[in-house]
Amino acid sequence: MRATDAFGIGLAMVGATALGSACVDYSNMEPSFATLRQAAQAQGKLIGTAVDGALLSTDSEYARLLAEEFSAVTPENATKWGPLEPQDDTYDFSDADSIVAAALDHDQSLKGHVFTWHQQLPSWVESISDPDELRLALREHMETTMARYRGQIKVWDVVNEAVDDNAPAGYRENIFYELLGPDYIEEAFLMAHEADPDALLYYNDYAIERMGHKADFTYQMLRDLVARDIPIHGIGMQSHLSVHRYPAADDLRDNIRRFADLGLRVEISELDGRTSGLTGTLDQQYEAQRIAFQETVASCVLEPGCARVTLWGFLDEYSWLDDEGTEEHGLLFDDNYEKKPSYWGVMDGLRGKLAKRGPTLVKNGDFEDELDHWVGVDSTLSLESFEDQAHPVACARDRSSSESGLSQVDLLDAFASGGSFTFRAEVRQEGTAPAGINVALIVEQSGQDPSTLSLGYLYLEEGVWRTMRGSFALAWEAPPTSVRLSFSGPDPGVDLCITQVALNQLHPAPG
Ligand code: XIL
Fold first, then answer.
1. Does ligand 1 have an atom closer than 6 angstroms to the CB of 310?
2. Burial status of residue 2 (CB atoms within 10 A of its CB: 0-12, 13-18, 19 or more)
3. Bridge partners (DSSP) listed for residue 467
4. How far apart are CA 301 and CA 40, in angstroms?
5. Distance CA 224, CA 185 (A)
6. According to the model, what pLDDT value does residue 31 have?
7. What is the model's pLDDT at position 25?
8. What is the 272 CA–ligand 1 centroid distance (Å)?
9. Given strand 405-408, what is the order of strands in its sheet?
10. Residue 317 gets which letter from DSSP?
11. pLDDT at res. 510
């Protein structure tokens, strides 16, 4: 079915006004869809949203869009422990019941959210200090809740946000961890499985979308649970993105794939995109958000192991991102219920279209022209070859500070107009301990001190090549006078080696 709304109008305008100009070529355009759920269905995927029980019953336009556009829902708050069981054994199922009933009416899949989390717990649970009492409370809460919705809510987030890569042991120190130790995680999955043996049980967390320390810890934790036959069936990567800097599609896809290879279902479970970190006009922010959503949704659609994308709401006005007082414009529809560019980003992503990549903007990124265009910053650069690298490698040795490293200086033209970009590089450190590497753009504007825009950070084992990737967006308030790309980070004395550096502009795919 062809869309006849904003998309159709856009096409007509291209035909009428822009013939012969360097416009997008729509001639090979594939069929488009009237709603997100139709597009998702054509791919055999689910497109979901968080749902608010109060809005569902008071805002008919909200209820209409919810039914038309989405094939799956997750209660945003209604099935959390606090709202559901505010006093011991006293339940308030009203919001959850109405969300479940509406979803079943509209043939939408349901995901329940969530049993163990450090937030939105009832105060009577937070005041428990005896481990067995906490176990019993959790078991009874799961049994009552899962029995009520058995056969209706078939997927549950059982454990939420259990990993904290800054905590000494890597586990977030919530009440469950403090009273039961890290085994609370498997205990929770085992209890949930007993309460409803047919339900699919998920682990859910944020900042595990990109490869790195937290994702690696989570991967090892889940690999261990799977190896010991603990009933865990899926993982949700929340994906609360910042549109000025977010995981690159290739990185996200590799990460999705390694979890899927454990036999887990993978989902993007709480997608939204903060815009306040990006300077520039609202149009520029919207365009960056469109591309960030497109890249994230397409990554799921292109990976067979990824079954569902859930947005954390769809109307900007009601997004939790604004709860702190900053307007983030984080979702798909504006305050007039009109579709934003981000809606079309999700639509393109559901059609399996990644954003189009321009040519690399980095000169001599593979060092085939030796060290041309690269400089050492307070370090000595050397051109080397490694058996496990197909291209020459540049290493910064004798680094004198954590700012020292490698830099490409002449990138002003590439970035002068701003836009959305993605980068990758093969990186390695040679020191005596794990160390972090920073990739950044150093930007100068006339009359101002240089500012550093961090594009990514990766913690590296000594002597191991890793791929570092990220996507980002730029919009300038005042045009820069120089832009350079910099690799730096670890303490002096640690050597940094890089190769295959690429950095490409991203454009929404045509059609
Ligand atoms: C948020 C809700 O959207 C807010 O309405 C509520 O005040 C706080 O929780 N990670 C999660 C979600 O797993 O449950 C959170 O939802 C957002 C972060």
1. no
2. exposed
3. 426
4. 8
5. 12
6. 66
7. 46
8. 12
9. 374-377, 405-408, 482-488, 435-444, 451-460
10. G
11. 73
> From the CB of 269, is ligand 1 less than 6 Å away?
no
Give me the pLDDT at residue 109, please.
98
Amino acid letter at 381? L
Q: What is the model's pTM?
A: 0.94
Chain segment 456-475, per-residue pLDDT in tens: 999 999 999 999 999 999 99
State in Å: Cα 320 to ligand 1 middle.
Answer: 7
- Measured CA to CA in angstroms, residue 170 lies from 146, 187, 209 at distances of 30, 18, 17
Give the integer Cα–Cα distance in Å for 386 and 495.
Answer: 15
Q: Please name the residues in contact with 300: beta carbons below 8 A apart, sequence gap of 6 or more.
A: 45, 256, 266, 267, 268, 306, 308, 309, 349
Buried b / exposed e along 369-402 (16+ C-beta atoms within 10 A): eeeebbebbebebeeeeeeebeebbbbbbebeee
Q: Which of 76, 85, 270, 287 is catalytic?
A: 270
Q: What 3-state DSSP class applies to 407?
A: strand
Beta-ladder partners of 381: 396
Whole-angstrom distance, CA of residue 292 vs CA of residue 285? 10
Q: Is 49 in the pocket of ligand 1 (CB under 6 A)?
A: no
Q: How far apart are CA 405 and CA 399, in angstroms?
A: 7
- Bridge partners for 407 per DSSP: 375, 486
- Phi, psi for 438 (deg, rounded to 5): -110, 135
Taking 70 as the pLDDT cut, the residues of the chain under it are: 1-31, 511
pLDDT score of 499: 98
Q: Which pLDDT score is estimated for 228?
A: 98
Say how far apart CA 302 and CA 280 lie, in whole Å: 31
Pick the catalytic residue from 76, 161, 287, 295.
Answer: 161
Strand partners, 498: 394, 427
Cα four-point dihedral sign 426, 431, 436, 440? negative
> What Rg value do the Cα atoms of the chain yield, rounded?
24
Q: Which tokens go with 7?
A: 């998309």
Residue 206 CA: nearest ligand 1 atom is 10
Task: Write out the DSSP string of 413-468.
Answer: HHHTT-EEEEEEEEEEEESSS-EEEEEEEEEE-TTS--EEEEEEEEEE-BT--EEE
306 to 23, 214, 256: CA distances (angstroms): 33, 20, 7
- Pocket lining: 77 vs ligand 1, CB cutoff 6 Å: yes
Residues 6+ apart with CB under 8 A from 58: none
